[in-house]
Each structure stands twice: as C-alpha cells, then as structure tokens.
Amino acid sequence: MKPSDMVVVDLDGKVVEGDMNPSSDTPPHTYLYNHFPNIGGITHTHSPWGVSFAAAKMDIPAVSTTHADTFYGDIPCAPALNEEQIKDAYELNTGKVIVDELKNAGLTRMLYQPC
Ligand SMILES: O=C(CO)[C@@H](O)[C@H](O)COP(=O)(O)O
C-alpha cells in the first residue's frame, strides 16, 4: 500500500480525496467520530489478547497500574450484534453498539477529558 492509495472521507463517509474505495469500516468510524467529536483517532487492531477477551465476551479488567496509565477502569466489551442488526447494516450497527456501550459504561465524559 502506498500513500497515494489512501482515501480521505468526510464525516458522512463521502470520498473527498483518492481513487480507491474507502474501507468497509467507514460507517462505524464516521459514526464514532460524529458521536464523540473530540476523539483524535481510532485504532483498529486484532491483538491476540484483545481478541481473546472479545471472543469470551468479557470486559478487559483494570488489574494493573499500567492499564490505569492509559485507560480509566475496565475496557468494555460491546455486545454481539443480533441477527437483525447483522442483516440490516452490519458495519454501521457495529459503530452503534460501540457508542451505546461506551455511553452505558459512563465513558463519554472520559473521552472528552484531555490526557
Ligand atoms: O477487521 C476487519 C475484519 O475482521 C475489517 O476491519 C476489515 O479488515 C476491513 O477491511 P477493508 O474494508 O478496510 O479492506
């Protein structure tokens, strides 16, 4: 992948720069940016440890000061999508359950605090 392969989209997901198709993750990412305007970026990883907790449908517990250095409290695991959410708009609904989970966990306030 080269820098010229990058695609820039606006907050509605419309391509504003680049010739490629945007990522299929564009709907959940724009949904997150639109609901948390102060976030500076989203990192999507498949770390073995993170995936392990997600597969077990578990929050990642705050058990160390190292964890506390970068995140306040347990890192919540969003609920799995139901069949209707998957069939309807899988990617967008992924963003919706993440936003709902962060709000339910009371993390909205934290996301707006400067580090
Ligand atoms: O993590 C996943 C699938 O597991 C997705 O994020 C895809 O990797 C998105 O691929 P592109 O549409 O960006 O090529």
TrEMBL record:
GO terms for cellular component: cytosol. Gene3D superfamilies: Class II aldolase/adducin N-terminal domain (3.40.225.10). It catalyses: L-ribulose 5-phosphate = D-xylulose 5-phosphate. SUPFAM superfamilies: AraD/HMP-PK domain-like. Its EC number is 5.1.3.4. Keywords: Isomerase, Metal-binding, Zinc. Residues 1-112 form the Class II aldolase/adducin N-terminal domain. GO terms for biological process: pentose catabolic process. Its cofactor is Zn(2+). It is an enzyme of class 5 (isomerase). Belongs to the aldolase class II family. AraD/FucA subfamily. This is L-ribulose-5-phosphate 4-epimerase. It comes from Lentilactobacillus hilgardii (strain ATCC 8290 / DSM 20176 / CCUG 30140 / JCM 1155 / KCTC 3500 / NBRC 15886 / NCIMB 8040 / NRRL B-1843 / 9). The lineage of its organism: Bacteria, Bacillati, Bacillota, Bacilli, Lactobacillales.
